[in-house]
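Hey, sorry to bother you again with one of my protein questions. A protein chain has come my way and I'm curious about its shape. I'm sending you its amino acid sequence along with the C-alpha cells. I owe you a coffee for this, so here goes:
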Amino acid sequence: MRDAVIVEAVRTPVGKGKPGGSLAGVHPVELLAHTLQALIGRSGIDPALVDDVIGGCVDQVAEQAMNTTRYAWLAAGFPDSVPATTVDRQCGSSQQAVHFAAQGVIAGAYDIVVACGIESMSRVPMWSNVPPGADPFGASVAARYPGGLVPQGVSAELIAAKWSISREEMDAFAADSHAKAARAHADGLFTAELALVPTPNGLVTMDESVRPGTTPEVLAGLRPAFEDPGYAERFPQISWSVTAGNSSPINDGASAVLITSSETAARLGLRPLARLHSFAVTGSDPLLMLTGVLPATDKVLRRSGLSLADIDLFEVNEAFASVVLTWLRETGADPARLNVNGGAIALGHPLGASGTRLMTTLVHEMRRRGARYALQTMCEAGGLANATILESIA
C-alpha cells in the first residue's frame, strides 16, 4: 500500500491582522506565492512535477476570491499546467488540505502535491464573506436551533462554564504560550521553518503577536471580549472570562507543505520529515462548536491503533485557552508535550493558514526531538474538527 510523507514544510512569520501589521501591505496572493516559492525552492524539485495544489482559505472574497491558491501558484512563476483549488473547512482549512493531498497520494491519484493555506485578515477581515443583513444559515437551521447559534467567543465562554475552567487558568495558559513562543524565537527553533518576507518596510523575520513580557497579572487586567446582555440572560452560567489575552489574535500569514509517497521521495532524492499516519474529521454540537477536538482526537487514535501514551508531541490549536484546557482535562494528556513552542494565542491564528502552520512547526519539532508520533487537532466553526497523526521516519 502506498503511503504519504511530508518532504518539506515552510511558513511565513505571522503578522498582526490589522492596518500597520507587518504583512498588511502584502497582497494575499503574493504572500502565498512567496511561501510556495520557498517550499519548491527548498525541496529542489521541478515544479512541473506537482500534480495539484490544495490551499485553505476561510474568507474567500475580495482579494481572497477567485481561487486564491491558483493565482498564488501562477504569481510564483510556476507552470500554468499545474492545477490548484481552494477549500474551506473554517479554521481547519489547510489541515483539511493536507488530508485531501495525502489521501490522494495514498490512493494513487497524485505523486506529488502541495497543501497550503493563506489568510490576510488585515486586508480581508473576518466575516467579509457575509454582507450585512445576509443569512448564511437559512430557515431550516434556524428551526433546528430555535435559540439561535452563537459567536465563537460565546461558545468559548460556554465551554469554560461547562468544564469549570477559571479565568486564572486561562490567563496562566495564555501567558505560558507567550513565554514558550518567545523562548523558541530566542533559541532559533523556528529558523528552519520560516520563509522570511520582504516588504517595503523591511524584512519580516518574527511572529508579530508574541509578547515576551506577558504575565497572568497583566492579562488579568483585560476586560471580557464577548460580554453581551442578551447572551448573559440566555446563558446565566457564563462568568464572562474570555478576553483578547486568552484568545487567539487576528493575523496574516501563509504556510505550505510538500507531500509525496516514500517511493517518489526516494526516486527524487527527497528526505521525508514525517509520514502522514492517520486522519480523522468529525462534527460536533454547533452551539458548543469548539469541542470537536475531543471526538476528533478519539477517532484518530482509534483509526491509528495508537493510544494517547504513544504520542510524543501534541499541537492543539489555541483558538481559545478554554478549548485547549478542556482538551487537556478530558484526554489526560501530558501538558509538557503540548504546543511546546507556544500556540496560536502567542504565534497568531491566520485562519486558512493555521492548519499547515501548526503542521510545519510540528514536523520540524519532531525531527529536532526525535519524536516518533505526533498528533495535531483543530476546532472549527460550525462544530467541526480535524485530527492528524504524524509518524517519524527513521
Q: What stands out?
A: The longest strand covers residues 251-260.
